[in-house]
Specification:
This protein is α/β, with parallel strands linked by helices. The protein is built from 9 helices and 9 strands. Strands 1, 2, 3, 4, 5, 6, 7, 8 and 9 form a 9-stranded mixed β-sheet that branches. Strand 1 (7-13), helix 1 (18-29) and strand 2 (37-43) form a beta-alpha-beta unit.
Length: 300
Amino acid sequence: MTAPLRLGAVIITMGNRPDELKALLDSVARQVGAPVEVVVVGQGVRLTGLADPAAGVRTVELPENLGIPGGRNVGIEAFRTPGADGFDVDVLLFLDDDGLLERTDTAELCRQAFAEDPELGIVSFRIADPQTGETQRRHVPRLRASDPMRSSRVTTFLGGANAVRTKVFEQVGDLPGQFFYAHEETDLAWRALDAGWLIDYRADMVLLHPATAPSRHAVYHRMVARNRVWLARRNLPAPLVPVYVGVWLVLTLLRKPSGPALKAWFGGFKEGWTTSCGPRRPMKWRTVWRLTRLGRPPVI
């Protein structure tokens, strides 16, 4: 009989939502089946009293905020087997610290999904507002997002509500830490798809999370623009780089952002072209076609 897949969870926190974090940890502990080991990464904050070896909760305290992908990479590293290539777990869950697992069988659904499909690399959860149950359109990682209750194969995933097979990290590397915030998920998704992995959006795997606007972050407009350019420069075949960037420039202008927002966006846009984006590994043209067949060609 095959042993059940081993699951771990990575949660990063700025320490400003202790009640929500505790509720999330409780929801992870309530999962049926084998326990899920948890690593909480403090981004420049102390996590006094949070570690609980008996409950499988470890903590890592960082001296500064490394950004979302940087913090999550520290959590990924905490699950690597010391002195060996590989991980202590088969699948890692990444959960926002103010989220909550609605169901007690989410971990079991993850085990089942990955066990049944050896080519499945990433699962994107559905995010629902805890008060209204609504799933925002931007939280459905496909162009046809009008029905969030429909599960499907997709080309990207949601950063704070997902599960990733650790073999994906072994094969294509971790999240791009230099992105700090925005589009790091798509960077990993494109690399995973290029390596032959599949990505699913599952409407039955739910993380309750308050409906908030991403633009609440002060760095939002600059990071979104810079990282869009970096994403293209790192991953797209050369002819598609200006097409992808040009499409997003037009879409941004059509949305008529405020003057300060547009100024920040263009500052980030310039930064994306004039600074290092990290290693360039353009995807194969057959991956471009694969993304197109999945409904999202890599120019949108």
